[in-house]
Design a protein that fits this description.
Length: about 230
């Protein structure tokens, strides 16, 4: 009877842990989407909302930390269960960083001059869409323990990197041809770099999902196929 009670309590804690990760992921996705909308439209109120909501993501990370430590200390999970708890602990930290990158983008929304006529700005949302889809899909993989989808997300990171390289070249050329745009172009370079890092962090989450599901590591990213 005691063992059955402990097993039920453990299942409830794992469910709670998964719920916290899901909430963090949902907020991170929303932050990416709304920070990009704020950037394109120049909406300071939307940017402020993204920045303020980041505190909730930070608080959720702390909740995950506390719960994961509690589970390890009191339940002494083993094998698959331990991998899931450790992976969740690491994923929470990664999602917190994704939220920070989205917040950084939101902070740039008020620093873009002449956005209606600034052609390179049109390239950024396409890059953001891929990064946001990676975050969405890796959270789906986490919820379903889908190692195949996690691996597919990792491989998709090459598209984000390709976008970053193209945007970097475009913006540098734009600055050379139109020196008056240097300040705005530099802000967009910062935005593109943050999106590239979001893609990298989605890949890091995918690595943890793959490990939790299979017990194996895929190895260094450089060793994986680029396409």
């Amino acid at each position: 009877m005691v063992a059955e009670h402990m097993a039920k309590a453990f299942d409830e804690e794992i469910t709670q842990l998964r719920g916290l990760i899901a909430e963090m992921g949902g907020l991170a996705e929303l932050a990416i989407s709304e920070s990009m909308e704020a950037l394109v439209k120049g909406s300071q109120s939307l940017a402020d909302s993204v920045i303020a909501r980041d505190l909730r993501i930070d608080a959720l990370e702390q909740d995950v930390d506390k719960l994961a430590i509690q589970i390890i200390a009191l339940r002494a999970p083993m094998a698959d269960d331990l991998r899931e708890v450790i992976a969740s602990l690491k994923i929470a930290g990664i999602l917190e960083r994704i939220g920070d990158y989205a917040k950084n983008i939101a902070k740039r929304s008020g620093k873009i001059d002449g956005r209606e006529a600034f052609e390179p700005l049109t390239l950024i949302p396409a890059m953001s869409e891929i990064a946001e889809e990676m975050v969405h899909d890796v959270l789906t993989a986490y919820a379903a323990r889908d190692s195949a989808l996690a691996q597919e997300v990792m491989e998709r990171d090459a598209k984000v990197d390709g976008f970053y390289d193209a945007i970097f070249r475009n913006l540098v050329s734009f600055m050379v041809e139109r020196p008056a745009t240097i300040t705005t172009a530099a802000q967009l370079l910062f935005v593109a770099r943050n999106l590239e890092r979001i893609g990298d962090h989605a890949t890091n989450v995918a690595e943890q999902v793959y490990f939790a599901a299979t017990g194996d590591y895929l190895g260094d990213r450089a060793e994986r196929p680029e396409n």
